[in-house]
Design a protein that fits this description.
The chain is α+β, with helices and mostly antiparallel strands. The protein has one domain: Muramoyl-pentapeptide Carboxypeptidase, domain 2. The chain is built from 4 helices and 4 strands. The chain has helices at about 10-60, 65-80, 100-110, 120-135, and strands at about 85-90, 90-100, 140-145, 150-155. Strands 1-2-4-3 form a 4-stranded antiparallel β-sheet. A hairpin with a 2-residue loop joins β1 and β2. The radius of gyration is 18 Å and the shape is globular.
């Protein structure tokens, strides 16, 4: 019997494969739901996913803007290979994606003939997912898109009894 060594894959290639797997799973599932259940079904599917992410954050005791921003940035950097930083202030935090690996992934798929468009991906990412997640967490989200990424500002909502 002959044993063959399994090669090690460099981190950058692993991250590219994770991006491709994530995008294939996300867009494949979304496309199927949209075709079978229409726009309303797709919105319900996105809402369910956002609620699950928000509940996971709560169970992990990630309930402050700075904790959430750090968790999101850590995943983006380590899993996908994004170039990302976090800036924090009193009651807010920003996730600054200088280079978003998912946006790069969309562009790579488009070069291969896929109908994905980076601008549409960003809208789906923000409106179809993150805004819903933060709404469940009773937080606000402001987003500024850039050529290669975005800035997501997460702000804790003030209760009506608090002074501004």
């Amino acid at each position: 019997m002959l044993m063959t060594d399994v090669p090690e894959i460099p981190l950058e290639q692993i991250q590219q494969r994770v991006v491709a797997m994530w995008m294939g799973s996300f867009y494949g599932s979304s496309s199927y739901v949209g075709k079978r259940l229409g726009r309303r079904g797709l919105r319900e599917f996105q809402e369910l996913g956002a609620r699950q992410v928000a509940e996971t954050f709560k169970k992990l005791d990630l309930t402050e803007p700075n904790d959430l921003a750090l968790a999101i940035a850590s995943n983006d950097k380590n899993l996908f290979g994004s170039i990302v930083t976090v800036e924090e202030g009193d009651g807010w935090a920003e996730v600054r994606r200088e280079r978003c690996a998912l946006k790069e992934g969309v562009k790579a798929f488009a070069r291969l003939g896929a109908t994905l468009v980076a601008k549409e991906h960003c809208k789906t990412c923000v409106e179809g997912h993150w805004r819903k997640v933060f709404n469940h967490l009773m937080m606000d989200l402001e987003v500024e898109n850039t050529d290669d990424g975005c800035v997501m500002k997460i702000t804790g909502r003030r209760s009506s009894g608090q002074k501004t």
